[in-house]
Specification:
292 residues, alpha+beta, Immunoglobulin-like, 4 helices, cell projection
Length: 292
């Protein structure tokens, strides 16, 4: 495909028009049979019989061939190869991504029709991949860019599907393939709580909702906080784990009354998740400005 638009249909010539019209084909058959009979030495008494049999055989052969061709032409084509909306490629191989960095790749969505197509939505089959169209209307005989975003915190080979859906039901589908390094990540990766004051807010809790990503289908079990030193400024606990795949975690942060900090500080909070019985750890960066 490579973004090439389908050529417009050219003018229909006489043989093609004749083949598409049954009545014209019958007339041409009768004329051909009559000319052939007159050119041969068939007795006049047998001309009628030969003409009827030959005409019937040719007309039957024509109708049979035409019906077979119509069946082939009426077979539905795949949405990727023959639909009005399609990606330039059915598969994009992004290779090995840079470890620990979020990546954004650009792909293109093509409209091969003569009218604009309004996009309804873009879907992916994994929370670790998002597809965002640069524009919401794919122009007639044109294309738009789609930003495919995902983190490189993945382990092994990964394959995810992207589907574009038009307002009138048009669909296009492609797959993205890449390699990563870790089975778990957290979004957001960094959160700033603002100012904390020990003198006025010694016990105030701050709640943070995070999303687990890149577990690619593995079953999520227990979620807990990893080792946190006694000299850390925060007290941290898991309030609840929820979501269809238990991928959302609500954390509670409070002040550690035994430790006093001054100025700005960020802390790496280890979040330990059980994936198919095996522990995986991701770090959430939490910061605050400590004031007296």
């Amino acid at each position: 495909m490579n973004g090439e638009l389908a050529p417009s249909a050219g003018p229909v010539d006489f043989p093609e028009a004749a083949f598409q019209s049954p009545w014209m084909m019958v007339a041409l058959t009768l004329i051909a049979v009559w000319l052939c009979i007159n050119a041969t030495k068939i007795s006049r008494s047998n001309q009628l019989v030969v003409g009827v049999v030959a005409s019937a055989a040719l007309i039957f052969a024509f109708l049979f061939t035409r019906s077979k061709l119509e069946v082939v032409e009426s077979r539905p084509t795949s949405r990727v190869d023959g639909g009005p909306l399609r990606f330039e490629q059915t598969e994009y191989d992004f290779g090995k991504l840079v470890e620990g960095q979020s990546e954004t790749k650009l792909v293109h969505l093509v409209n091969v029709t003569g009218h604009d197509i309004q996009l309804k939505e873009m879907r992916t089959n994994c929370v670790c991949t998002t597809a965002t169209p640069i524009e919401t209307v794919v122009p007639a005989n044109g294309k738009i860019g789609v930003n495919v975003s995902f983190s490189s915190m993945l382990e092994g080979a990964n394959r995810y599907a992207i589907k574009a859906i038009g307002l009138e039901g048009q669909e296009a589908r492609c797959e993205v393939v890449f390699k990563g390094s870790s089975p778990l990540n957290i979004a957001p990766e960094r959160h700033f709580f603002g100012a904390f004051s020990y003198s006025t807010e010694p016990t105030k809790l701050r709640v943070l909702d995070v999303e687990l990503t890149h577990f690619y289908g593995k079953a999520i079990g227990d979620v807990g906080i990893g080792p946190v030193g006694e000299d850390e400024p925060f007290s941290i606990s898991v309030a609840r784990v929820y979501g269809e795949n238990r991928q959302r975690v609500e954390l509670e942060f409070g002040l550690n009354s035994d430790v006093h900090y001054e100025g700005f500080v960020f802390q790496d909070v280890p979040l330990v998740v059980e994936l198919d019985g095996q522990p995986a750890t991701a770090f959430l960066n939490v910061g605050a400005d400590f004031v007296e």
